[in-house]
């Protein structure tokens, strides 16, 4: 009975089958032993031989992890993308998904006619759900920190594990690979514009990518049971042992002695055996977590050492989003608007020359206007707009000055200023000269004003 | 929210180690070979079994396995639960349940007696008030027995939750929403079980309490969060006791059914 693999894949010779069982039963002289020389409760990773080694390698990219345990080999990669959260209940959480695929070359019988058989696909789905239970339901990955904009954009993290070679304990190797992949994965930083809600994903060159928050590392351990040796749990079985065994238990446990998931299969295991397995799996989890963390620390050190610092000049192409500041604080911008206002109001009266002179000598224009006011040359009809301009100009400059100083720390002042500006731009009926009875009264003086102002400009 | 009161009573008035009232009915559908309905409080499950019949697909070329193939399909009625439809047919969760249930039932069925055959088990959740998976397993056992398929033993099944620092057996929907860890266990009760149910009406007396060592765990699925080692062990013990209780109920009901059938047969004879 094999946990997470099909029933018709590999054949074990009768001799090996009998030896595995007989060795586990043991005799008076020696206790139970196993075909590869390990003790029943001993996991791989402690020996010098290739079969008894654990090897965790990372890279070259972030989030790629290859784990080899004896001849069992698994590779995990993690990817992430911004998505709309699927359910309303989890609108402020990112999602985590674990996909497991059995490579068709990993084991005889995984594929038939070049395709994974139905049962193989079901087994890989089961294993994926077991890992998900540890990582997602056990809250190993902090999904709340994956929320960018609640209800709109969250990170969807997918960890895909591929089994490359199968020599027993698929669950253990897959869980190690998944943990290793998730702990080295880095997602690009992103920021949200509070007004428009536009999400900007920053290039990893511009801002340092962010690693996932991992609270703990759920590690799966496989145990096999044989009817001939009741009560004897065989830890980290090889493929031949898994095939020969009658029942199995897979415990997903972290190094903090917390049980994340348990799954049993086969012809049945007594209740006491399950408890025994869960207790024993803590030691394995602690041991392998250490190995994993050490390997990840090495990778992290190498990553930092290899990091090439480049000067970022992407800001040159970046869109200029400081509309408000541009509108109000660039020198000369106010004047342009005033002239434009005038041009709009008196389009018919302006000859080509007048416009030219306006454009050329804008600054002088206003200076002269002010001078005219001072000399009281302007007629009464003109004075409404003129005086308005004049009276409003000095305080406007003042407040401009003020907000310029305050611009860094007082955003409210900016908005107040914008409001004022808006009001000013919208001409209201009350501002027009005349008594409001006839439109002609309101329009006439403006023509005159323009003429006088241009004349004075030419003087 | 308080799930266990100071007096030790749960939301629906049960104590931590009390399961809801089980009920059952056999042969609810004449169209299939065997069928049963199993209720656990307000949770209602119907199960239909077809087979053993000649295997349709996966014949000789599929390889070594000559034994009977047991397949499960699990569905939910649209009105089974309000709001979020958890585990709709065809999604990952439901598929996983199907595969686990098939494995569990296969280990209880004498597959060697029916070579090159297949048995189809279809479970439908009519009403889900928590513990639908456990009730489905119980319903499947009754339906298999109704179809006359030889069984090695009876599978008892129950769920255990953990809320307010206490392991609670047979959680209902409100308690499931408490988002505590949940352990679903199926156990095979096989071998020589004393026939202690001469009168099925007094079955209440021995519905509670775990005795005997003839019970083996065939499915044990812990999900929805992590637990400490001690919590897991207390949940595990409670779950095994619950499995034994439900297996005992199923055994009593099957014996009563067989007696009733024997009686009708005898009436025909005379």
Could you name the CATH topology of chain B? Ribosomal Protein S5, domain 2
Ends distance of chain A: 105 Å
Number of helices of chain B: 4
Structural class of chain A comes to alpha+beta
Tell me the number of strands of chain A. 16
How far the N terminus sits from the C terminus of chain B, by CA atoms, comes to 62 Å
Helix segment count of chain A? 12
Mean pLDDT of chain B: 82
The major beta sheet of chain A can be summarized as: 6 strands, mixed
CATH superfamily of the domain at 14-312 in chain A: GHMP Kinase, N-terminal domain
As an assembly, this protein is heterodimer
Average pLDDT metric of chain A: 75
| Low-confidence regions of chain B | 197-213
InterPro entries (chain B): ExoRNase_PH_dom1 (IPR001247), ExoRNase_PH_dom2_sf (IPR036345), PNPase/RNase_PH_dom_sf (IPR027408), Ribosomal_Su5_D2-typ_SF (IPR020568), RNase_PH (IPR050080)
Pfam families (chain B): RNase_PH
Domain Exoribonuclease phosphorolytic (chain B): 19-150
Keywords (chain B): Exonuclease, Hydrolase, Nuclease
Characterize the structure shown:
- The complex is a heterodimer of chains A (459) and B (270).
- Chain A is α+β, with helices and mostly antiparallel strands and 459 residues long.
- Chain A has a domain at 14-312: 2-Layer Sandwich (Ribosomal Protein S5, domain 2), CATH 3.30.230.
- Chain A contains 12 helices and 16 strands.
- In chain A, the strands form 5 sheets. In chain A, strands 1, 2, 3, 4, 7 and 8 form a 6-stranded mixed sheet that branches. Chain A has a 4-stranded antiparallel sheet with strand order 14-13-15-16. A two-stranded antiparallel ribbon of chain A has the order 5-6.
- In chain A, β10 and β11 form a beta hairpin.
- Chain B is an alpha+beta fold.
- Chain B has a single domain (22-57, 65-269), classed as GHMP Kinase, N-terminal domain (Ribosomal Protein S5, domain 2).
- Chain B contains 4 helices and 10 strands; from the N terminus they run ββββαβαββαβββα.
- Chain B has helices spanning 92-108, 132-146, 173-176, 229-269; strands spanning 22-26, 34-40, 43-54, 69-76, 117-127, 153-163, 166-169, 182-190, 215-223, 227-228.
- In chain B, the strands form 2 sheets. A 5-stranded mixed sheet of chain B has the order 1-2-3-5-4. In chain B, strands 7-6-8-9 form a 4-stranded antiparallel sheet.
- In chain B, β2 and β3 (43-54) form a beta hairpin.
- In chain B, α2 (132-146) runs parallel beside α4.
- The chains are: A alpha+beta (459), B alpha+beta (270).
- The interface between A and B is large, with 37 and 38 residues.
- β16 of chain A pairs antiparallel with β10 (227-228) of chain B, so a sheet runs across the interface.
- Chain B: This is Exoribonuclease, phosphorolytic domain 2.
- Chain B: GO terms for molecular function: exonuclease activity; RNA binding.
- Chain B: It comes from Ostreococcus tauri.
